[in-house]
Amino acid sequence: MYATIQVDLDSLWTYDRYLYQKINNYPVDPVYSQSLQSFLDLFAKYKLKATFFIIGKDVQNPKQSKYIKMIIEQGHEIANHSMNHLSDFAALSLEQIREEIILAHNLIKSVINKDPVGFRAPMFSINQPVIRVLEDLGYKYDASLMPSAIFPLMMNTAHSLLKLKPVNLKCGNIRWGDAPRGIYHPDKQNMAKPGAMEIKEVPVSVSNFARFPMHSTYVFVFGKFLFDSGFNYALKNKITLHYLFHGIDLLNIEQYSLKLPGFKTLTKRQKICEQIVKKLAENSQVVTTENLIAIGKETHGIHPASGI
Ligand SMILES: [Zn+2]
């Protein structure tokens, strides 16, 4: 089985801004100065290459360039995670969407010396216009689709609790409960169905049980059975697995103002992250998302037109 490990390198400032409406101008964001090294060490220990989705605004900070260089020097992929990590990304105007993608694209290109080929929308906020913009810009893959009907409800509930007021994020779609779980070419009119677009959709993997999100945030809160469920499903059905971490997963958030109920201590999170990476390294071939697309091995995960 092929697998990718993807890290959304969402800086601490994105959480400060979204949850507390404040801007902390860290000279170097703690996600870059602290947790990035832990991720790089973990991936080096298991000799695997990952895909880091980074925010354009973080590339603009000259004090962070040495950290971004470390990612590149160690052979990992850098993909586009938009310029400003705006929530409700898909609700922006088409012009704003293009600008958010292109500004980050050009900044990333200036550090990796080639065009980035992959994109993930902030908060998984994706829709048909966004994917058409990506296709127009020559992107090889989008990794924003969560093939789960319960995901939008879970995100909105969790974020309403965190913000202590009802919020209505436009992330995911309740109709995506039957979207393909393996890589596919999306349909021009409905990105959650296989079709004729050139770009490929690389859905975030979900558990077999109720198509529950299985990425680290949920594993920390609900348990590792979510990961095992999604892992076993991918293995049995011969689809590629795309496992997602976030920058704060290996950050000592207790040092900062960030409060996430249910988020375990750093020691416990380190242990869980290593268990997951170890299992992926020992039982699958982990490659960058870009390489998976380039070598065509993702065909193992392409579903028939009916999708599952
Ligand atoms: Zn993000």
Key attributes of the depicted protein:
5-stranded parallel β-sheet, TIM Barrel, 308 residues, binds zinc ion, 9% strand, alpha/beta
Write a short abstract of this structure:
By secondary structure, the chain is of the alpha/beta class. It is built from eleven helices and eight strands.
Describe the structure.
The protein has 11 helices and 8 strands. With 308 residues, it is of the alpha/beta class. It has a single domain, classed as Glycoside hydrolase/deacetylase (TIM Barrel, Alpha-Beta Barrel), CATH 3.20.20. Strand 4, helix 6 and strand 5 form a beta-alpha-beta unit. It starts with a strand and ends in a 13-residue tail after the last helix. Mean pLDDT is 91; it is low at 303-308. Residues 8, 10, 81, 85, 122 line the site of zinc ion. Zinc ion binds next to loops.
